[in-house]
Amino acid sequence: MRKLIYTFFLIWALGGTFSSARSMQFSTTTIADIAAKAKDSVVNIASLSLVKDDDEKAHRMRNLLIDPKKDLFGTAMLNTPRRVVAVGSGFIIKKIKKEGDCDSFIYYVVTNNHVIDETISLRIILTDESIHHATLVGRDPDIDVAVLKFETSKDLKVLEWGDSEKLRVGDWSVVLGNPYGLGGTSLTTGVISYLARDLGTGGVGKKTLVDNYIQTEAAINPGNSGGPLLGLDGKVIGVNTSIITTSGSNHSVGFAVPASLAQEVVETLVLSGKFQKAWLGTHAQALNKALASYLGLKDTNGALITKIIKESPAEKAGLRAGDVVVAINNKPIKKFADLTIIGKKLPVGKKANFDIMRNGTRLVLHPVMSPYQDHEEFQDSQRYEHITLEDHAYNEFLGFGVTPLSLQFRQRFGINDSSVEGVLVSDVKEESIAEQFTLMQGDVILEINQEKILSIDAVNSSIARALKENPQKPILFLLHRDGTHNFFIAIDPKTKPLRDRDDKVI
């Protein structure tokens, strides 16, 4: 009997505790208040893009607006597969009064870069269903954040940034956004289920520099990308970015870029349109007790350097594999993720103070941080830098340069097959016609319109002849790439360079 009474008392006590917590955290008024205050600050984003191939078309088609006839741009979507519309979410983070206009405001909207990637036109849809033209202020693909702006006379509220550094696993979170392009602003809730999640590939199929995602059980579905993740105080603690799924729908595992990182990126984009991240040039890993013991360390604080990239700031400063970074600019590195979080925020072009432990001795090294670049891309670029051109020709129309294929360049680009004869592509201008058709520095041009190319002069003469004989016909290039394979590309001379296109939104 005593045991029964005790059990009843325990259940009653726990029930009272859960009931109290539920009342405090999930009061209908509390959640409703968050939605009421924030919903008008959350917007729908429609992005018009030109697809390149069937795979990208299929991806875009999954995110089309639901209207089966026409989209917001007046395009009959299902009958013009080259022009498709993707939808996503965003939120207003800043507003300013438009100069010289007493009735208009300029609003800045945060979203994901992948929502507006490759767009040629943008629209913002407010909760009252009004539609506004938007322009791109700036973006950072590495963090997957972008900032747009639009004008309206409507007086809209601005969301505030919260402190994502104070989050704990088990805290409640709220997702607001536009799932599946249904329109309006939908709300889901769920607990924070993990902090500082490193997805490796970024979780959206592209590399990002975020290795401290917030993981939430609040449902993030297609179309929610770019919307806010809110705390129960109604402040933004993250930017909803991606999900892990096997079906394309949410499985209660969603990820958001933490406000601690997104806020700095957004503020810099608003000011300058570009966020410049620092790069050290190292690979590193977390310490465990066994490694710390072997290295003679008292605890597992710090990040263990495992590899130094050649010619990187780390190598130039004297960092070595086996060093343990314990502080940067007097900020302690308590866990592995701190190396990336603190390191990315260092000023580019200036010396930083790195406190390291090496063979039981504490040292201070002073790397000069470079602008961020991917390790592998940097290593590849070393093959292409400092090319000494004894002879060079440039095709202004297509936007690329060539130089003779010397023994030096054969060694540098790994062209070991002596039967490969042609000229080396030494330069491809950004946004040129050649770049649009994937011509790359380091390619060897073997033929143009099935004529062998054995000199740099032959490149311009062959292109000029092709344009004169049939200016409407693509020019066929046979290329050798990476020292391994040959392939054809057909460059359409009627294509405009991207820099001259009227419909580019930047």
Tell me what the structure shows:
The chain is of the alpha+beta class and about 500 residues long. The protein folds into four domains: about 1-35, no CATH class; about 40-275, Beta Barrel (Thrombin, subunit H), CATH 2.40.10; about 280-370, Pdz3 Domain; about 385-500, PDZ domain (Pdz3 Domain). Helix content is about 25%, strand content about 30%. It contains twelve helices and 27 strands. The protein has helices at about 1-25, 30-40, 55-60, 115, 260-270, 290-295, 315, 335-345, 375-385, 405-410, 435, 455-470, and strands at about 40-50, 85-95, 105-110, 120-125, 130-140, 145-150, 170-175, 185-195, 215, 230, 235-245, 255-260, 280, 280-285, 305-310, 325-330, 330, 355-360, 360-365, 370, 395, 400-405, 425-430, 445-450, 450, 475-480, 485-490. The strands form five sheets. Strands 21, 22, 23, 24, 25, 26 and 27 form a seven-stranded antiparallel β-sheet that branches. It has a six-stranded antiparallel β-barrel with strand order 1-2-3-6-5-4. A six-stranded antiparallel beta barrel has the order 7-8-9-12-11-10. Strand 24 (about 445-450) and strand 25 (about 450) form a beta hairpin. The longest helix is centred in the first third of the chain and has 24 residues, at about 1-25. It is flat, with a radius of gyration of 27 Å. The relative contact order is 0.08.
Key attributes of the depicted protein:
506 residues, 27 strands, Pdz3 Domain, Thrombin, subunit H, flat, alpha+beta, 12 helices, 23% helix, seven-stranded antiparallel sheet
